[in-house]
Structure formats: structure tokens, C-alpha cells
Amino acid sequence: MIKLYSDNKNLIIDDEPIKDKLLTIPLNQKRLYKISHGSFKTKANESIRDVFKENQWIVIHENTGKGQAEAFKNDLTEGDYVYITIGGNELFTIAKVKAGSWGYVPEDITDENGWIYREVEYIKSATNPDPSPLKSFKEFIYPSGNSTFTEITIDKIEEANTNIFEPHFGVEFISEGATKIKVQGELQKHPNNIILFGPPGTGKTYNSIDKAVEIVTGIKSNHEDSKVIFDKLKKEGQIEFVTFHQNYSYEDFMVGIRPDIEFEHLRFKPYRGIFYEIAKKARENYFASKEQTALAKSFDQVFSEIIKPIEEKNESIEITMVSGLKYKITDVSDTTIHFTKPSGGTQHTLSIQTLQDVVEGIKEVTSGLSVYYNPLAKLIREKRKPVGNGQTEKLKNFVLIIDEINRANISKVFGELITLLEEDKRIDAKNELRLTLPNGDKEFGVPPNLYLVGTMNTADKSIALIDIALRRRFEFIGYFPDYSKLEESDGVFLKHINKEIYSRKKSADYLIGHAYFMTGLDTFKIIKNKIIPLLMEYFSGKTEVVEEIFKNSSWSIKYDIEKYDWIIQPIS
């Protein structure tokens, strides 16, 4: 042994972990989860944990709520990955799920029935098992998160890599088909305003989903994964989607007024449009991350907390006025606060929207109702402040997708935003501009972390296309037919049609996209129900022109002037 060590001295000395080298694990369509054995984290349960380690089990109790036990049983499949944590005490290992179903842990091991297990293969132990640096993170994917079993979805993988896997395991996970596009730790810079343009059926709306997810997460992925992330981010308000139409207006998009249908007599209430709301969220995130503070609670969140006794117990809420007297909030509708004055009067109400404007400094109430608005607004402001050592807000990107952006009168819809959208006019940019809005917001600006992704069908000439003022503020990305996505016969057929269309229209705006042949319908139905009606529209109903387009193709298509119908037959 002495000779062995002597002969290999240099090899032994040099044999130490390379801290900067990461083990990259591609998920290859598999999923990644956190599993916590926190129920067995005490010293007294160490022998139970040893049995789990010896058998390479992950365990959960079958009564674990919120669908976690069912997901453990039914969603975990062979090849999925889990990282095992002993509650918030210790990071243990990364493991891979083995083939086979779940089973019950023998009762004599846990002294309790109902525990179920899955077999795994340990693949990478924690190099730094101490999770104390992660104590402030309370999301479910972290050791201290209040969950036993949770999936780390693709939009969270980069965050988990940075905070958990790289520093504690020396590992990074990469989703199949996902390409990291971060530069020096920052999200790659995208143009703030993008329009995906092209003829119908080329995947503009389809790709707008992928583009939005790429901007928000910094990851390019396959469409299936992107759609899952898109739905999640949309639910959380980080991505919004709207379709323009001819009646869409500035009041729908930014701010305006709408009839208040809760009252018999005609009256109006303020309305905040989809752009105003997402710009507000992006702006709050931008300033909180810039100032390295926790994000304040939202108005809606705090207001819901205050009125909870009314909704859950039908109890009134007392609000102390400046005079020391108290009034009682007795009922709350979607838009209105009903209250009883100290004198017992109930003839007046408060507007929730006006209250929010007072809280956010947009409006001051000068009428006699100010004595009721102001103390409630003060209470909400105090409750909105981050409590204690809140987690510092990280900069996020927000995306608004505008489908069919050219179908509205966009100069009317955007109004003063035409100027504010420019990158050098955004908040903290070289030529920053802020404007006063019709609702009284005197300092409205567009933050740099808000992105617009529009889609535009170039074949739609029924309405005006984007005017020059807005066009120069967007970058245009073209989408055109991709024949490689189709079966060879359909690709050749579509290429022939597009060649004939281009020869007549002298423009690529009227081509037909590959998506028409990716609907799952057979080619006959696609031609009859999709292609021919579109060509008839393109060529003003001239059947002879449409017939000529199909000439010398793989289909014989003629118009029967006796039956007034199309005869469609494949040419063998």
C-alpha cells in the first residue's frame, strides 16, 4: 500500500473536485421535481432516513394534500429527476426515478401506515448540503418552501440552477430543445417592440407564444414546453394577450370610463385597460428591483385582506376617522363599498376605483367623502409596505402580445403611447418622457422591461396597415411558408400554388402558409374548405383564375357551372 501511494502521489494530490466544472443534465422530455423528507428531519428519525437511503426510496404520505400525493403516484415516470431535501435542514442528493409503480412503506419502518415510496437511483450527492443561504426563499421549489412534492417547471429551471443546483450540487439542468440565451447573467436584450408579419397560416400567433416566453425566461424551447410556461405566466400577469378589432379603442387599451351597471341611473366609472395594467406591474417590478427592495403588496391583495371578515363571516369592519369617530364597512360589491356613517346614515357609497387612485396618488378627493376615503387609503398604504426582511425583488420582463395589431385604428388606440414606446423615451432612458393621462395620472411612463409583440396578417387589406409613425417604432420579423414542415406531396403542392399566386399578385403578402396543411384534416378537405375559399377571396371570385392556379399541380380542380361546385380529384 505504501508503494502504491508512493507511485501515485501526484495523481492523489491532484485528485480534488473541480469546483467550477458543472455536470450538465439534459432532461430529454423528462420532468424535474423537488421531494422533501421533512417529516423525518429530526435526530430521532435518522434510522428511518437511513432505511430510505439504503433502499434509495423517495417517500410521501398518501394523505398529503393539494394533489401532491396523486402527482407522486401518477405523474412521476421512469427517467424523471428529483432533488431530495430533508425539509429545510439538509440538501441530500439528486436522483433519477426507476421503472415501476409506487408501493407502501412497511409500517414497522415508519411506525405509521400510509407512507408510500418510489424507487430512484442516486446520481449526484450535494457538494454543499447546507441550505441556510436559501432560507429566505419561500417558493415551493426551495427546501424551505411549504411543499412536499412539487415540479420545477421549465420557467423555473434557470432560477433553480442558479440558486440550488449549481452552488449546492455542481449540476445544471437543461430542458431538451431549450437553449439558454443569457449573456453574462443577464437576459439577452430583445427589441422592446416587435411585429411578426406575414401571409396567413405561417405561424405568427403560434410563434408569438414562443417569443413571449423567450423574452420573459431567457430560454428558447419547443412549443409544447413554451405553451405550458405561457399559460402559467399569463395566469400570473407577466404575459398578457389581446386581439385588436375595428371597434377597439384607447379606452379599452389605456384608460377611460365605462357605464356602471350596478345603479339604475346612468353613471360612469373609471376603467383601466390592459396596457395600463401591465405597464403598472412592469413599472413596480422595475423600481423595486432597481432599489433592491421587496415588492410592495398590490392594492387588490391588501383590500382583499381587509374585507375578508365581510366575505367569510359577514362581519362589518370599523375604520377610524381622523376625528376619532368610526364608520363601518358593511358590504362590498365588485366596484362599490357600502358603509354606515357614525351618525347611522347609509345613503353614500365609496368607489373602489377611486379608493385605489387615492392610494396610488393619482387622485385627491375634495368632496365631503374625503373623510371616509382618506383613513381607509392610509390603512391600505401601511399594509402594502413590505414587512421585515422581505425578499429583494428581481427584475422581470413583461410581455403584451397584440394579435392582429393592424385590425384596429392603431393611431387612435395608442394615442400618446406612440411616443412613449420608443426605447430612448422609456423610463430611465436617455430621453425619458412621462405624460399626464386623461385619468389624472401625471407621471405615466413606459418601463424598459415591458415588451410588445404584435402579429400582422399582410393579406388583410380590408383595413389600413400600420401607419408610418408606429411602423418606425417596431422591428418587423417576417414569417413565410415553410415547406419543410409538411409531407413531401403537400409541400410540393403548396409550393406550386404559391408560385402561381406570386406570379399574379407580384407580392409575398398573399401567399398561403404551411399551417393550413397541419390541421389534421385530409388534403381534400383542406383544399375544398380552406384553400379554394381563400383564393376566391384573393381573386375577387374569379373561378377561371383559381382553376388556372391549380393547373399542372398534383390535383385536378375544376369548377362545375351546372352544380356551382368544385370538382376536386387527386392526379395519380
Automatic annotation (TrEMBL):
SUPFAM superfamilies in UniProt: P-loop containing nucleoside triphosphate hydrolases
InterPro entries: AAA+_ATPase, ATPase_dyneun-rel_AAA, Methyl-DNA_Rec/Restrict_Enz, P-loop_NTPase
Domain AAA+ ATPase: 190-484
Coiled-coil residues: none
Identification of the protein by name: AAA+ ATPase domain-containing protein
Pfam families for this protein: AAA_5
Domain of life: Bacteria
Native organism: Flavobacterium cyanobacteriorum
MF-aspect GO terms: ATP binding; ATP hydrolysis activity
